[in-house]
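Support request from a user on the community tier.

User writes: "When I paste my structure tokens into the form, the page sometimes reloads and wipes my input. The last time it worked, I copied everything first. Here is what I submitted, just in case something in the input itself triggers the reload:"
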């Protein structure tokens, strides 16, 4: 290699813009030569941790403040001016670049938790007097946010069954600014047809109203199994605490969307303050993202095996797993849930109802099982089981639990990386105690 070329090779990375490489490769390497931070000689991006930054000169400091979250004014793209962790920070910034790419979005902002991300996405869309339509089945804290806090802010929440054709059109009014749902829904695994939601929102817009913005919580699927922005959604929210982090060590959340929302979301995050700590961003970015495809493939394969087993088990009334041909929305699952190579990707979560006492199963697991653990959360290397009505969705009234389709005998299972035969044996013995 000639001397000039060698110099170029040191400063010009081969894959700055992820040209022909697959997503798995990109998730390992990221934009290692991001202009956000020069760490050319590190193999692993270092952890940066600094609440404030040297501004260098009064003028540079003033420019940093002037250009922050200012679309068009972005000297920060060429050479970022870091000021203060809550505004922008290199490790979190690298995580955001990678997740935006993984979701096929233009912009990502990372938050302290999944709930902070949900609040952030909707915080920039909604104000007093607006209405939001939500699907009837949601993660318990999202439900509580809408039920307990939004009415106090003067935001009307309309709950609808978005699996039913026509239900959304009926629920929308001229004041509807956002439609919110999870697909698959936590915990029942119902799917929402994202393209159909988009069509209904566009039809509403044709009546002279602004088009309601579609916000989807993609935590269950992860971008490995589903990329909602390519299917018609406007904003994707995530709990990074789950499969994107993958190891259960850190909490985090993220919003991925179009560039037009970037300023608003950054300003919201700056002022409400729920920003992802760099010490949490680092393990999610360095361990979680690179292993996401591998973990999802393995966990999904186990989910398929466990769903088959449960479906044939005499103590099991019903299994909801999008990968089962008996799943009521199997066709929709096949269309919406695909991995980066286009293969069907029904994910690693399932929900099942048992005949008999679900608590006997959980207590057996808590006391005797090794491969399966009684705990909330999901998307970890460990297989976790819980009872939504008593745990993650306990905040819902008994009546609301009923209208969400939750049953007392229902159990949520998140598949981990243990040998599937061990998971099956633990479940077999636990079911014998139902
Ligand atoms: C866990 C979860 C959240 C909340 O995320 P946190 O990181 O716990 O705040 C939101 N939505 C879904 C679907 C979840 O499973």
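"...and here is what came back when it finally went through:"
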């Amino acid at each position: 290699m000639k001397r000039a070329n060698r110099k170029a090779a040191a400063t010009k990375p081969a894959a700055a813009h992820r040209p022909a490489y697959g997503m798995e490769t990109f998730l390992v390497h990221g934009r290692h030569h991001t202009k956000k931070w020069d760490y050319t000689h590190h193999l692993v991006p270092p952890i940066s941790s600094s609440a404030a930054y040297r501004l260098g000169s009064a003028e540079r400091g003033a420019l940093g403040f002037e250009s922050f979250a200012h679309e068009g004014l972005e000297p920060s793209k060429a050479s970022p001016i870091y000021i203060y962790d809550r505004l922008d920070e290199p490790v979190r910034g690298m995580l955001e670049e990678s997740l935006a790419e993984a979701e096929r979005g233009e912009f990502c902002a990372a938050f302290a938790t999944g709930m902070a991300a949900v609040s952030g996405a909707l915080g920039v869309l909604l104000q007093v007097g607006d209405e939001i339509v939500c699907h009837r089945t949601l993660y318990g804290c999202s439900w509580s946010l809408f039920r307990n806090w939004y009415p106090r802010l003067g935001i009307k929440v309309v709950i609808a069954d978005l699996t039913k054709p026509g239900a959304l059109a009926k629920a929308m009014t001229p004041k509807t600014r956002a439609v919110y749902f999870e697909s698959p829904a936590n915990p029942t695994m119902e799917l929402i047809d994202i393209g159909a939601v988009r069509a209904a929102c566009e039809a509403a817009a044709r009546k002279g109203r602004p088009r309601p913005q579609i916000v989807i919580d993609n935590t269950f699927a992860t971008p490995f199994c589903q990329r909602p922005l390519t299917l018609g959604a406007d904003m994707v929210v995530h709990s990074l605490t789950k499969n994107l982090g993958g190891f259960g060590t850190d909490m985090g959340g993220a919003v991925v969307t179009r560039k037009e929302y970037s300023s608003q979301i950054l300003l919201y995050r700056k002022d409400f303050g729920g920003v992802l700590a760099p010490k949490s961003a680092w393990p999610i970015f360095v361990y979680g993202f690179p292993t996401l495809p591998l973990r999802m493939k393995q966990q999904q394969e186990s989910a398929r095996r466990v769903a088959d087993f449960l479906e044939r088990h005499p103590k099991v009334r019903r299994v909801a797993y999008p990968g089962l041909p008996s799943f009521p929305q199997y066709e929709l699952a096949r269309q919406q849930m695909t991995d980066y190579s286009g293969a069907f990707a029904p994910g690693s979560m399932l929900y099942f109802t048992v005949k008999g006492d679900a608590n006997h199963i959980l207590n057996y697991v808590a006391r005797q099982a090794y491969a399966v653990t009684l705990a909330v959360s999901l998307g970890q290397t460990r297989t976790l089981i819980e009872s939504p009505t008593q745990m993650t969705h306990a905040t819902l009234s008994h009546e609301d639990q009923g209208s969400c389709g939750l049953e007392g005998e229902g159990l949520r299972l998140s598949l981990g990386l243990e040998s599937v035969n061990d998971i099956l044996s633990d479940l077999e013995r636990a079911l014998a105690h139902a």
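Agent notes: The reload is a front-end session timeout and is unrelated to the input. The chain is about 40% helix and 15% strand. Residues 1-15 have pLDDT under 50 and may be disordered. Escalated to web team.
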